[in-house]
Amino acid sequence: MGIYSSLGVRRVINASGIYSDLGGSRLAPEVWAAAGEANAVWASMDELLALSGERVAGLVGAEAARVVPGASAGIALAVGACVASGEGAVMEALPLCSSCVLVQRAHAGYLYARCAALAGARVEWVDDVADALSALRPAAVLHPAHLDEVGMPVDEVAALARAAGVPVIVDAAFQCFPVSSLERWASAGDLAVFSAKYFGGPNGGGFVAGSAAAVRDLEALDFVGYESGPWRTFGRAWKLDRATVVATACALEAWMGCDHDARRAGYASLAGRLAGLVGGSPCQFTFDERVLAVGPFNAVLVPGAAGLVDALAGGDPSVRALAHGDDLLLCVETVSSSEIDEIAAAMSARCQN
Fold it and tell me: What domain range is 222 assigned to?
């Protein structure tokens, strides 16, 4: 923790879960080692991205894939790819191109639709996908996987869009467990966007997977050829380093081979121990922020303690927890065993105050 202290930054005990504003995930030793090895040796980014994409595509059962710097960048690049379709002049002109992307009005609470605007696309919220496909001639349809049960499901959307010649982009950012979800969503549309932090990869990593043609259009406008190619491509702002590319592919491979039963049993053990110390109940907390009453447990709910959230965050170390109604939620997926006692001590001190 010396580097944080030297910068005057408090250490955070992350009992909230995997969030970008807390730095994403904690890299496993083998992923960290792979990133360190990549950092020590140069590589052609063109070759590294092409071959790591092949590895990722093989792991998730897609025709092709490309590592990108996170899911939000993946959405912007995917939209740009659908607008430009490999045309150099358009790839260079983005985002100053007239285009639109459809999102179902039933998904109005979806926060990341605005990422489409980074590629210059106007977001059109529509009630009837079929009518909008005909009337608006969009560049793409953007579909959030976690809201698939709301509105028209992606399989129906994709069939309509395919008939109209319009690609579908699926935001599958955290759809990585069970591991079969990766393959399901990677093939649900033309392009699917995933965030690496949810499968133990770097906060600044992710990938886009889908059809070979669609991924090829995305590759054409990313950062690699900006200086060496004929076009000053739109994707230059979303560059990657060697270590992030390698860490993303390595983390995905480790995730696919992980003993997830053991992983979840470890969380349940931590949750049980923490619950006993703070007077809470073990529960399950999902990435779309639903708290379920049944296991497997990965969190603790402390009744009536939501008022402690700010006080805990204000301490040193800063304990970051979530309010769930009037209750305090402590997610243990991002907590180490040694931090359990620190959380309990911090809560005890705040309650006494």
Answer: 42-256
